Amino acid sequence: MKIxxxxxxxxxxxxxxxxxxxxxxxxxxxxxxxxxxxxYWRCTMVQxxxxxxxxxxxxxxxxxKVIDDVGGHCHKKPKFTKRNDxxxxxx
Length: 91
Ligand SMILES: [Zn+2]
What we know:
The structure is a single chain. The protein is mostly beta strands. The chain has a domain at about 35-90. About 0% of the residues lie in helices and about 45% in strands. An 8-stranded mixed β-sheet has the order 6-5-4-3-2-1-8-7, with no helix packed on it. Strand 5 (about 55-60) and strand 6 form a beta hairpin.
């Protein structure tokens, strides 16, 4: 039996500089570390008008299933475009 839950689906994208990003619920995250058999991701955006990083975090399993979604976002969702089947974050 296949269970589909859109809320927990993730996608991958590239940043303008070619870094790998994970997209969840329209927000982009970059991998910070590997801990206790899980990946730990941080939101890539900064708070508008400051240089402070958004504090939202995400925990996934090794096969990128979202376990936990911590903290709120203080900015709008980033914009993405598609280039040859690759999703690229514009800003
Ligand atoms: Zn954020």
